[in-house]
Every structure is written in C-alpha cells, then in structure tokens.
Amino acid sequence: MEKFTFFYRSQSPFSQWYPSVFIVDGLEFNCAEQYMMFKKAELFGDEEAGSKIVQAPTPREQKARGRSVRGFDQSLWEANCRQFVYDGNYAKFTQNPNLLKHLLKTKGTTLVEASPTDTIWGVGLAENDARIRNRKSWRGTNWLGEILTKLREDVLQKEE
C-alpha cells in the first residue's frame, strides 16, 4: 500500500511559497515560487518581468508578476516548468540543511500537494477528503509532489 506525506499552504516546507533563501547563478531567491516565476520570465525573454519578479518581496506578488510575462506559450511552459521547479527546489533544500531534514524524513512516502483547488501542481483534493488516500481518485496530477519525491530520492541516492 502506497504511503503518502500530504502538504498544503505556505506553512509547509514543501510549499513553493515557504520562505527559504537560496542562491542560483549568483541570484538570491526568497522562495521556490520566486525562482519558478523568474525562470518563466527568462524562458520567454521578458527581462522586465524577470527584474520585477526578483524585486517582488512576497510569493503572491511574484506569482502575479509571473502571470504578466510577455510572449507566454503554454506548450513551451509545460515542456520546461517541471525542470524549473525541480532545480529551484534542489537549491532550496540542499542550501538549507534544516529543510533538507524535513524532506528526508518523508522517505518511503510519496509527497502529495493536498490542494483542493490546484489540479496541476496538486491533486485537487484536501487532506481530509477520503479520496486523497487512493491515487486513482485524485482529480489532479500532483506535479509538485512528484517532483519533490524524485528530488528526495535523488538526494538519498547521492548520499549512498
């Protein structure tokens, strides 16, 4: 029987919005959402949006500025966004040992974003919904949970 670690909201260290400073290519980010939105702007060549995203202090503002990226193409985004989320979270967890401990404690489980409203990054179900305990009942893809699960396994493999 598959075991799950459910998470939701910015209080969870697994959230894209969880406050965590990390540096990638000389740029400092304050959460994984900021990194993801910056990479979105970079992918579509919108330097102005990228600059505004880096300057935005909160994930809510970063996401809003990411939505205004010029030249957005859904298929190009979908071909790249999961790698961006993996890379940002790799930096977040490997540069913050206390967060890495939280991630490694989930060993043996699949991480699941228990968002009742997000059917792309989450499963479209709340943690208290009985359907969440059966992968076949999920209404969403759980991209974030799958990425974090893979990241944890990759880190564990490197440690061996």
From TrEMBL:
Catalytic activity line of the entry: 5-amino-6-(5-phospho-D-ribosylamino)uracil + H2O = 5,6-diaminouracil + D-ribose 5-phosphate; 2,5-diamino-6-hydroxy-4-(5-phosphoribosylamino)-pyrimidine + H2O = 2,5,6-triamino-4-hydroxypyrimidine + D-ribose 5-phosphate
GO molecular function: hydrolase activity
UniProt keyword Plastid present: no
Pfam families reported for this sequence: NADAR (PF08719)
Transmembrane region(s): none
Alphabetic keyword roster: Hydrolase
Record-linked InterPro entries: NADAR, YbiA-like_sf
Domain (NADAR): residue spans on this chain: 6-154
Protein name stated in the entry: GTP cyclohydrolase
Organism: Paenibacillus terrae
